[in-house]
Give the backbone structure.
Amino acid sequence: MSKRTIVTLPGDGIGKVVLDETLRVLESAGFEADYIEGDIGWEFWRKEGNPLPQRTIDLIEKYKVALFGAITSKPKDAAFDELAPELKTKGLVYSSPIVGLRQHFGLDICLRPCKSYIGNPLNFVRRGQGTTIEEPAVDVAIFRQNTEGLYGGVEWSNPPVQVYEAMMTHPKFVQNFGATPKEEISISTRIFTKRATERILRAAFEHANKYGYKSVTVCEKPNVIRETSGMMYKMAQQMQKADYSHIELWNTNIDAQMMWLTKNPEDYGVIVAGNMFGDIVSDGFAGLIGGLGFAASAQMNPDNGIGVFEPTHGSAPKYAEYEVSIVNPIAMIESACMMLDFVEEQEKAKKIRKAVAEVIAEGKVRTYDMMKMRGTAKVVNEGAASTRQMADAIIAKL
Ligand code: NAI
Ligand code: MG
């Protein structure tokens, strides 16, 4: 079999560091691949006026699988200020390359696993009976619809007349907003299609089936947001009945779910939600298993076989300036494990996860976040592991 080619997208700041360390871990696990680096991020916005150049899109199109570090984004005005002078007259507007990738390749399936490692000092604990303390084992896989809903980008302030008139055909609009001048109205839409909803639900049930989770929870708000959340839940009921009757289907409201998060997180298995609620609930669960140093994600389109794997965290610019990097590489390493699962190298993924688990359980090598330190440049002198030392410890276990 010929060697696989993986596109690496280091991006900005600490994205570069955690990606480099992750490639060393992949190599030690025996994953053989050629890597081609793709340009993405702030540097390319400044120099070329495009944070996601066409040549990078072409690379991903060709090789299908990408490991992505993190990028820096800034608000519109700040983005304009930093453009190269010769580009400033071209009317360029910054837009997120991550969202760009999702839309271009239809990466509508986002998976964010949140599984606690035994011995991680950042694990959530709760008060039990009397004076006891409980540390529930969290093992949740969150499926977030990644292209539609509130992040679909269909929105207006002072909407065009046709839109306004269409809205005025809805009795609730007339009743609640009919007296407000058009210029004073902003509208963000929440559009769900049957096709995309079916796909995210299918991915969630398939995952539960493959990995033996006993339940799939639809986390939306169908009693209030009747059309979109309601459609998702109804489709989930039909799908469960037709194809997955051995898996339980649960239904929670996003607000209540966030309250219950700390009450019984161990009870949940696979969770599936629309774009916004999926984003919220996955951050909530990530907080229970160690936060940004541990939160990984996959964005996939099963139809074209394209997958982009990245930690949830950003480029942490402040930390990127330290001579010795202190950030935790585990979120990126976990993302790479999902990449391995995606390319049918599950055994290697398993090996790496086992090595990570051993290092954490041993408790000798911990990055600053795991020691609850403030992230200064001095933490390594004060006993925290550097990014490299953490990767080395994992490699030693491999
Ligand atoms: P951030 O995730 O970069 O950092 C927030 C804080 O989390 C850091 O100061 C640090 O204390 C901690 N942290 C992050 N990653 C860590 C790691 N691996 N280990 C230990 N601690 C870690 O978010 P922030 O500061 O809000 O944004 C910085 C830049 O990153 C912005 O330009 C933002 O737009 C961008 N961003 C990019 C994302 C992406 O590429 N997917 C996601 C989130 C933010
Ligand atoms: Mg988020």
Summary: Residues 155-188 form one domain.
